[in-house]
Specification:
Layout (H helix, E strand, L loop, with lengths): L5 H9 L6 E5 L6 H15 L7 E5 L11 H11 L6 E6 L7 H9 L4 E6 L7 H8 L3 E5 L5 H5 L6 H11 L11 H24 L5 H12 L7 H10 L7 H13 L3 E8 L4 E11 L2 H7 L7 H15 L3 E12 L5 E14 L2 E8 L5 H12 L6 E6 L6 E2 L4 E5 H6 L7
Parallel strand pairs: 1-4, 1-5, 2-3, 3-4, 6-8, 10-11, 11-13
Antiparallel strand pairs: 6-7, 8-9, 9-10, 12-13
Helix pairs in contact: 7-12, 8-12, 9-11, 10-11
Length: 417
Amino acid sequence: MIIKREKYLQELLSLQGNGLIKVITGMRRCGKSYLLFEIFVSQLIEQGVRPDHIVKVDFEDYKNKDLRDPDRLYAYVESCIKDTEQYYLLLDEVQLLHSFEDVLNGFLRKPNVDIYVTGSNARFLSKDIITEFRGRGYEIKMYPLCFREYMTAFSGSPQAGLNEYMLYGGLPQILSFTAEEQKVNFLKRLFAETYLTDIKERYDIRRDGDLEEIIDIIASSIGALTNPNKLLNTFRSEKKSTISYDTIKDYLDYLCDAFLVERATRYDIKGKHYVNSPYKYYFTDLGLRNARINFRQFEKSHLMENLVYNEMRVRGYNVDVGVVPTVRTNAEGKRQRALLEVDFVCNLGSRRYYLQSAYRMESAEKVEQESASLLKVDDSFKKIIIVGEECPITRNQQGITTIGIYDFLLRENALEL
């Protein structure tokens, strides 16, 4: 089964020979190694690069254990470079190489060596790249399969595919299982034995009950506003826990650092500034989220909101939660300030979209409800409601576009239509 990760491949190709260390990061099992060693290597050979000018080392492979020693690796790579032509150095799970930053910076000084590495989220995060390479590294952040990629390997209809995707997520290996029990067991073991272990080992967490409680709370409340203070109150009132504010904040940061979840900050659209707290947290992979809570809460409206968020992140957008201050008249005739929410404010360069995720809009009242916040946004950027079913792409007299989830996910240019 070959799934082309075209977006990431094209990004790698565009960075060839730019004098930086290309670092592919992302959650475990999202396809980093396959992208580098299979897809990218095949493209290099198709370009005419000779195989003996592609130096590959997988540090997780036991036969390469000796090469985790920096001196031995350096000598090995040196022995492979026999002329002045371009060489490609590809290193998988580079965090297993001792003093990897010194070794890579050494190779970076060679004019005919182009360096590409992958790093595990256990010990090699975005902030590590900034710290260790100090402007000499370029991060390519990789996500699990988006729905468009997923459907290239799924044999059923888009409707059946979306149901499976929202339930079991987009980790590539999930497509190799045919039985429901196999998929469930794979995801549950992966969460417990890999992702949680990574976090516990990296941050030396020994009493992990509170960490797991925080994960469960976030998993059970996709799209809900929260912050460390709110969680602290929950722990003290319901769990009778003595956990501190700082520990809760650290645990939330750890989950983001491990690429398990992402934090969306609130943005005041009219005031053009960020509202520091509270935040929303979305899971990078829905299958892992569902596995964590034993597949008990399959609420399509919330899962679709998470899915829309992930899709825009895969497309490279910065995604915030929008708020629009407004004044309303209550039942007593008094004017009151209120905040209307725009699900997502998506920015990429000069482009911006305001998105609402609405699983169903079966009545005029529901249409009015979903449109209310968008109508309060007084700029000219495109305003879109995404509904969880097939429907024609339409635009009303107020300038709001409605688009179905399948067009949104499967047509890259859907937001431009």
